Amino acid sequence: MAELSEHDERRRRLAAWRACDRVLWRASADRRIGERLTALTADAGTVWNLDEWTDVYGNGVVAELEQRVAGLLGFPAAVYFPTGTMAQQVALRSWAGRTGNATVALHPMAHPQVHERGAFAAVSGLRTVHPTSEPRQPTADDVRDFEEPFGALMLELPLRDAGFVLPEWDELVAVVDAARSRDAVVHFDGARLWECVSHFGRPLDEIASLADSVYVSFYKSLDALSGAALAGPVDLMDEARAWRHRYGGMLFQQYPAALSALVGLERELPRLPSYVAHAKTVASGLREGLAASGLPWFRVHPREPQTHQFQVWLAGDAEALDEAALSQAEETGVTLFRRWFTDRCPPGIAVTEVTVGAEGLEWTEEDVVEAVGEFVRRVG
Q1: What distance in Å separates the CA atoms of residue 216 and residue 193, rounded to the nearest whole number?
Q2: Torsion from C-alpha of 102, 91, 218, 329, nearest 10 degrees
């Protein structure tokens, strides 16, 4: 069989996932353009008066979205950005101008360090340091005892690449206090902050109130087309608008993304706690199924998911595991795992991310165990 190109492999995956009757989650990028447009057209009128004029350079529906986010997070103001990469650079360079220190303390597995091509330094003149390199959230001692001064502490909540892990509430408070004892400001990379409410047992505004500024994403958990917001004090947001313009983020019209974000806030945000709760059921089924599978080694991490997303680690070849997962989808109409990766894994180990969404609520623990058996049978 001829090897498929990357483009053809992607089309094969998308076709298989789309055809499945049972999935744990359907990503927005799995859908066709017409489907996304039809859904947005059907839903947009429930969150905004579609007889209003379109936005121009951030007014109208975009301004309404900013106000909604500021209210949800308990800040006086928020600014819409086309990307989180831009939003966080603007936030941290603005704080650097106020503190006089362009050094940002963050985890080496944080998104800006791993997935943004060194943009903090290359574009915004920021220097990064790491209070810990352990695959966990930094502790108060890590922050308090770090040997270099820094102007801002950035905390990614949850820390995705470490397994979507979160600190306990008291630990988070202590870390923030430790940063403040060093005269540093605190910024939350809250791309997935929306789903942290269940773990912390606190409302969004109380969680966000620990930080001096917070970034949130609209497409990662809320199923919007794109976009992000930065929330904080009024003077910081005023400066953020100026830098957004300089960075090329002051787009002429953004109503499709803004409307989809408002839909996400209305529809998906209230559902996230149910996804988080059911992720524990899915993880339990995975542990049971993999323990009985005869595979040489596995890990579900965290053992008890702290959000609706977590990792599964297996001993094996990523390509073989990808093929087993895809064959299972094509042959049984069930998608259990999606993609497997070896980035930052020990030799011979692969990792996948599991997300539980609305579709996953139908799965029982027994369904998961059965699906694991079908997957393992194809691993060979």
Answers
A1: 7
A2: -10
Report percent pLDDT > 90 for the chain. 97
Question: In this structure, which amino acid lies at residue 62?
Answer: V
> What is the number of other CB atoms lying within 10 angstroms of the CB of residue 294?
8
> Which residue is associated with the tokens 């093929």?
323
Q: What average pLDDT does this structure show over 245-250?
A: 98
Task: Name the nearest CA neighbour of 330 among 85, 2, 53, 12.
Answer: 12
The per-residue pLDDT for range 42-61, each reduced to its tens digit, is 999 999 999 999 999 999 99
d(CA 110, CA 122): 17
> 266 and 350 in contact (C-beta within 8 Å)?
no
| DSSP assignments along 246-293, one per residue | HTT---S--HHHHHHHHHHHHHTGGGHHHHHHHHHHHHHHHHHHHHTS
Those residues with Cβ within 8 angstroms of residue 104's Cβ, 6 or more apart along the chain or in another chain = 92, 96, 120, 126, 127, 128, 129, 150, 151, 152, 153, 154
Helix or strand run (H / E) with residue 95? helix 84-99
pLDDT exceeds 90 at position 2: no
DSSP 3-61: PPPHHHHHHHHHHHHHH-SEES---GGGS-HHHHHHHHHHHHTTTS-TTSPPPSTT-TH
Are 324 and 372 in contact, with CB atoms under 8 Å apart? no
Residue in 206, 211, 165, 203 with CA at minimum distance from that of residue 186: 211
Length of the chain: 380
CA atoms within 13 A on the CB side of 203: 6
Give the span between the Cα atoms of 270 and 291, in whole angstroms: 34
For residue 61 the two structure tokens come to 């529906």
Which pLDDT value is given to residue 3? 75
Mean pLDDT of all residues belonging to the chain: 97
Residue 336 has pLDDT above 90, yes or no: yes
pLDDT reading at 1 higher than 60? no
Separation in Å, CA 292 to CA 88, 289, 312: 44, 5, 15
